[in-house]
Request: fold
Amino acid sequence: MTTKSLNPETIALHGGSYRKDESTNAVAVPIYQTTSYQFNSQEHASNLFSLKELGNIYTRIMNPTTSVLEERIAQLEGGLAAVAVSSGQAASAFAIQNLCQAGDNIVSSTDLYGGTWNQFENTFKKLGIEVRFADPEDPITFVKLSDEKTRAFYAETLPNPKLNVFPIEEVATLGKELGIPLIVDNTAAPITCKPIKYGAAIVVHSLTKWIGGHGTSIGGIIVDGGNFDWTKKPQRQPNFNQPEPSYWGWVLGNVVPEVLGANITFAVRTRFVLLRDLGSALSPINAFNFIQGLETLPIRFKKHQDNAEKVAKYLKDKKNVIRVIHPKYQYDIYKKRAEKYMEDGFGPLVGFELEGGIEAGKKFIDNLELIYHVANIGDARTLAIHPASTTHSQLSSEDQLRAGVTPGYIRLSVGIEHIDDIINDIDQAINKLENKVKNEVA
Ligand code: PLP
Reply:
């Protein structure tokens, strides 16, 4: 079947080469809960190890259930190949470690998920990989902060809490000139944003969020866009242009496209060097859970986005709400970026600022009856958190403000419940704040 021109709803169900299980004709993707694979012959085994043939060797490196997930997500993102890993954190770490060694650096947007920030600022620093932080408002700062040891630019499509869409094409274009690929974390904007189309070389996702969709499994994935020339500026990308000691001194940037007939060098090195050496493999049962989530992602995501827009609209008119943060209601350059990059909806996240500061924020959370109070995003259920007293509480008030966290700020990951029930819960939680103020005055 030619699947190239299929739409997301169809790719989610049929993408990639899996049609049925060849031995049983099963339609649902089986969970291949196995560590190892019997080789057909000595020659077959040798071919697999020397990458003359691609096939299953050991589940730390590949697995047939996981492969179906990888093919479908690669196709959804418009990439050539993908490698699934054990978490979103592992996906960002591997994407960078695939390019960097001690002494190298990357330039990243300041607007990042807190876990990624810690990984970059603390753990990578200890490994000798420096992360320099650039202002996403001004794409040229990525270039200004780079030097001859810069191996990648990094950003999130829709970082929360600010929800300012990242200028993907602008930064990818600047990077390409210098031989620097752009890696984009597209966790919060699957389906609606396609970073590879705008020049990103690599896309990463936390599968844990909307792709899994039900809050049951942790996983991540790295998509190789197949659109970056790793050999054009050989000094810039040593991992692809110098002999790889663990593969007979091959220069991967030349050998992979030659042997496998496709520019999937980044994915191949992630799998055959990093998964092999550092582990972080996704378990087959979690791959199965993500395949289930993926099957309904396009319709779920539409509903998440529709509900988020309606919640944002309701909040705009609500007394006690000082400010609403949602890409549709951004201004100036941010509005233009949202309209350009979010092609099929403005995402499932909404932020708002309550009058009454930190106390109002905390009280609002306690007043909720239906909406869950959790640190996660991307569940089918609506989730809320008050960052100033939780996720961002260790930051100084100046750093909180820099991160977009004001004292009364609430983050909502809007779910797929009936919209009236979501809004009613928010409404009663805000009204109770107002009643409390009235009672105190009286
Ligand atoms: N990237 C983003 C944007 C996230 O929100 C998260 C987690 O919240 C991660 C990466 C890390 O993903 P995981 O929790 O699967 O490791």
Summary: The first strand starts at residue 81 and ends at 85.
